[in-house]
Amino acid sequence: xxxxxxxxxxxxxxxxxxxxxxxxxxxxxxxxxxxxxxxxxxxxxxxxxxxxxxxxxxxxxxxxxxxxxx
Length: 70
Known about the structure:
Number of domains: 1
Radius of gyration: 19 Å
Largest sheet: 2 strands, antiparallel
Helix content: 25-40%
Distance between the termini: 61 Å
Low-confidence stretches: none
Number of helices: 3
Structural class: alpha+beta
Mean pLDDT: 89
Number of strands: 2
Order of helices and strands: HEEHH
Strand content: 15-25%
Shape: elongated
Strand order of the largest sheet: 1-2
């Protein structure tokens, strides 16, 4: 049975990873889904996953675009 290390790391058994379809090099999202439970999800497209998550102060992007026109 895997245990959480002092560095907050856990080894997931290979058979579990294979059954879930994970492969070495996959980008993953790990999130809490309740007390004592986590969920691991492979990210198919990082751009689609994170696009639109950054908020800028009002007018910032307009000022940035103005710099490009110089």
